[in-house]
Amino acid sequence: MCGIVGAVSARNIVPVLVEGLKRLEYRGYDSCGVAVHQDGALRRARSTSRVSELCTQVKTESIEGGTGIAHTRWATHGAPVVHNAHPHFSHGSGEVGSRPGRIALVHNGIIENHEELRAELTARGYVFASQTDTEVIAHLVDHHYDGDLFDAVRRATLRLRGAYAIAVFCRDEPHRVVGAREGSPLVLGVAKEETFLASDAMALAGVTDRIVYLEDGDVVDLQPGRHWIERRRDDGSERFETVVREVRTVQAHSGAAELGPYRHYMQKEIFEQPRAIGDTLQGVLGITPELFGDGAYPVFKEVEQVLILACGTSYYAGSTAKYWLESIAKIPTSVEIASEYRYRDSVPNPKTLVVTITQSGETADTLAALKHARSLGMPHTLTICNVATSAMVRECKLAYITRAGAEIGVASTKAFTTQLAGLFLLTLALAQVRGHLSEEQEAEHLKAMRHLPVALQAVLALEPQVIAWADEFSRKENALFLGRGLHYPIALEGALKLKEISYIHAEAYPAGELKHGPLALVTAEMPVVTVAPNDALLEKLKSNLQEVRARGGELYVFADADTRIESSEGLHVIRMPEHYGALSPILHVVPLQLLAYHTACARGTDVDKPRNLAKSVTVE
Ligand code: G6P
């Protein structure tokens, strides 16, 4: 989703801005742009193509300067066309003293009162050149500008409703960039004679590892080698006060991970799963609540139920964990889609462990759902998150950081399986505190977890067989996925993977529901993918498969080695390793990831950046 980079320096900063955008490309975008202060004027280049094309454009047009801002846009208000791409400039003469074209601005988020502001600014003489909600902020800053950009931004933010991270500079103050955030991520990068702004620290890798995480209500003044932060007071006074935020040294991690022998990041990330799970479990010598942070024990002891909040693939990780939490830890668990939970009336119980699951730690809906749960009087919060420095980790009292490493492919893979590993540890820790985990059981579970990297390698070795299936799938327009119990969320995740990257319509059902509707869709044209572990539900599942075969449906079954399901006419079987007990979902999701990946490759889609989707969804 939208990405921001900004800088003030004595050197030409355009290469740093463009490199920063490249590092943010993985978030998903449909246009991009850069603007600098050059020879006393605002100059910009914008493109609906890739950042590499923007790079050529800035070179051709000799766009250079020490003060600038850059942006990747994921369209919300207004189509992905050049005139809607950021940076936006203020236009129109406005009131006395205001000159056209002096403010340049980029924005991530959504301004909810943009229509009202647009009408007001139009009446004042401002001319709108785009359909975006963002452009109102450029004009609003211009309207408040009286020789001090910091003050103008402070005053403008008081009028904004919604979510934003912005970076702004002004033609009349050549060595200054001002940023502000409310609900969307923004960090400050500190270096000796330069200062930077970015949506995340990864964008500044190679430039600086000294980062300040800005908080909601912050307005920041950037000048070469120095910065100043003020925070809007929350007493309703509309006044600001100076704050000093900690400068943290973050581990420099490059977004430009090498592809190595792989065709796409998604394939690389699927194959990284043995390493990612190994890293995530590294250092886990035994089960103890403190794996989730100091002070976890009394919380785990007190809570009576678990409420999981998440979006997308992370939601399916939570849906899987519900089965574990109820069967192993015997704790009532509900799983809610974050964007639904935050807007519905629910019955809060203060003795709830609120668990958010998020790869990025920046998903706007999940962050808002967490705050909503807290506002309802549920103080015990824990996150399973892949980014240690993210807003979510800072917001939650307890955390387990998965070590999947940077995930570039929009379709989540290694983040999902590492989330499952973290959630299984949480299940065991809660089971222990609640007296449902003997030492023998703990040792057995840990042994199985440590063996996961080897077991995953065996599943990845099935890739050639999956490729043969993918070839057939690539000619279909619909697919059905079936699973039961613990593997129903895995079927859901398999269908999500297939639809998001191959654009084949896919749906998942708990197999027992087949006869209540979806069976009507079954024909030879509808492949039915089935997750068939050798668990207590296998015999029931086999009956469901018969229901499909009897209607001429074509079955594609991932069966554990020890199940007696053999290939026959209309029944294709890929044999998985032996049944892996409670951890089986972590293995069974992998061939579904591979099936989606190879089907998408066969159809020639943009696998790592599927149309319309973003990696990091920082707007509601
Ligand atoms: C987007 C991504 C998904 C991800 C979801 C939740 O839709 O494309 O891969 O599952 O957001 O993101 P999170 O970072 O909160 O896990």
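^ 6-O-phosphono-alpha-D-glucopyranose complex. The pocket of 6-O-phosphono-alpha-D-glucopyranose is lined by residues 311-314, 358-360, 363, 366, 410-412, 613, 615, 617 (CB under 6 Å). Confidence is low (pLDDT under 50) at residues 93-99.
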